[in-house]
Amino acid sequence: AAGRMDEELYDEFGNYIGPELESDDDEEQQQQQQEQQQAGQGGGADWAREAGRLDEDDTQQQQQRDPSSSAMEVEEQVSTAVVLHEDKKYYRSAEEVYGEGVETMVQEEDAQPLTEPIVAPVKQSKFAFVEEELPATVYEKEYLADLMDAPALIRNVAFVGQLHHGKTTFVDMLVEQTHPDVQVAEASPLRYTDTLVVEKERGLSIKATPMSFVLPDLADKSYLCNILDAPGHVNFNDEMCAALRACDGAVVFVDAAEGVMLNTERAIRKVVQDGLALTLCINKVDRLVLELKLPPADAYHKLRHTVDEVNRVLSSCAGTAAGGGAAEYDYFVSPLVGNVCFASALYGFSFTLRSFARLYADTYGGGFEPDELARRLWGDAYFDAKRRKFVRAPPAAGARRSFVDFVLDPMYKLMGQVVGEVDSQLEQTLAQLGIKLTRAQLRMNVRPLLKLVCARFFGQAHGFTSMLVDHVPAPCDVGERRAAAIYTGPLDSEVGRGMASCDPDGPLMV
User: Fold this and answer.
1) Which of 13, 131, 214, 390 is the most buried (most CB within 10 A)?
2) What is the pLDDT of residue 54?
3) How far apart (Å, rounded) are the C-alpha atoms in residues 449 and 433?
4) DSSP codes, 441-498
């Protein structure tokens, strides 16, 4: 029987298939547990009593800090209700955290882009654009400083006029001509004198900004022109008044397409009231060609009407000049007098009748006096091609005025060829005018190409500088009259004599 039982404990291959046998390790563990129980019956009572006392103390301290915790524990122990998964509450609600009077908003999706940091860095507030270093110019800075010691070579001028009539853009044109490192983007204007960030954003001037240039006239004589770019918005007329107080003359800017506006009249009246020299710049003449698409004859009448409107306002201001300005200036503007300038600051050119006559003299080799030609380029003057002379009466029916034939017609043709299809004809026309452009420049967009061609054809603003030199007095010539009109202190003092004589070594007045 014993042999049969042993056979049942093993299979046919000799593997043990009987009940599990107790190992030696299990016997050792059971023996250790028995010894620990016997030892704990004697000293375990003291340990249990001490542990129980500590638990009671901790429970009492916790109840003192949070009396409701004990009740919650009892509820948790007593509550045996079944809680669904969607009803389980893991976190406190926003109302429990922040209180009932606080409005909370929950955003399901993260709308913050990955490129934006969760905690944004602290940004330094910047309100103005300031040049870190003096920009490079076509003239030496020492030469500009030396011109300050010669008051006869200084012209202090304020740019005034209606909003968006091109005052700041005209200053940008002068900056481009005198600062070779200044680059102008095609999409956005330069606005060099708009130093405030808010001026750049809104696209208008808020503060009157001064800037000094060394500009040559038609005789290539350099003058120091201190220009104050005054705001054109009606809300900033105080800046315009302050700019006029610091200058000896003003250039009134008028849009060729819009004409004389309300703030233009106000600026003219203020210039006359302060007794300053007045010159006129009809800006944006390109709008007559590219935007309004007026024929050259109609464009002449538009320009002449603008000049007549300015003279109408000036005549209505007669007798309001202060400080002897009415006796000093007759306040009449005309291209024949030389105090009217035509310009397109956006495309980088300006000219007067004298500068355009000089352009003809340089192109065709002279043989005539440019000033005599300039006198016949405005008004009812016609060129008789048969007799080769200028006449006052139209030589034939439908004859065009000399300003249309000699000034507007070439400008129209040049702009028309650049704006039209750029082909070999444009290159031939530019070659006849002595303008050489590279293949890369000829492939430029229309706007920068037109600006480049006009700048090469008309040259720099020599005519504008000659207008300032001829019709705006030097500080030393009007120093005594200006000091008497502005300064409220005694003129026989050191300060009064220094201002009247424009003494460069005199006391500084701000």
Assistant:
1) 214
2) 47
3) 16
4) HHTS-HHHHHHHHHHHHH-SSHHHHHHHHHHS--HHHHHHHHHHHH--S-TTSHHHHH
Split at pLDDT 50, 70, 90, the class of 24 is low
Strands 277-283 and 209-216: unpaired
Q: What is the CA radius of gyration of the chain?
A: 45
- CA torsion through residues 494, 499, 500, 506, sign: positive
Instruction: List, in order, residues 6 or more apart from 196 with CB less than 8 Å away.
Output: 127, 128, 129, 206, 207
DSSP state of 323: T
d(CA 283, CA 460): 16
Phi, psi at residue 91, to the nearest 5°? -130, 155
DSSP string, 389-424: EEESS-SSTTPPBHHIIIIIHHHHHHHHHHHS--SH
Closest CA to 247 of 268, 275, 267, 266: 275
Residue 163 neighbours by CB under 8 Å, 6+ apart: 204, 231, 232, 233, 234, 263
b/e map of 343-381 (b: 16 or more CB within 10 Å)?
Answer: bbbbbbbbbbbbbbbbbbbeeeeeeeebeebbbbbbeeb
Compute the average pLDDT of residues 415-427.
80
- 8 Å CB contact between 349 and 435: no
Once rounded to an integer, what is the mean pLDDT over residues 340-349? 95
Strand spans (E) along 54-206: 154-161
Phi, psi of 299, deg, nearest 5: -65, -35
Least Cα distance to 300 among 269, 342, 250 occurs for 342
| Cβ 338 vs Cβ 351: under 8 Å | no
pLDDT band at 136 (very low <50, low <70, confident <90, very high): very high
> Where is pLDDT greater, at 303 or 508?
303
Strand partners of residue 251:
159, 279
Q: DSSP assignment of 67-95, as one string?
A: HHHHHHHHHHHH------STT---S--HH
3-state secondary structure at position 219: coil
d(CA 171, CA 213): 10
At 215 the pLDDT is 96
Residue 60, number of CB atoms within 10 A of its CB: 10
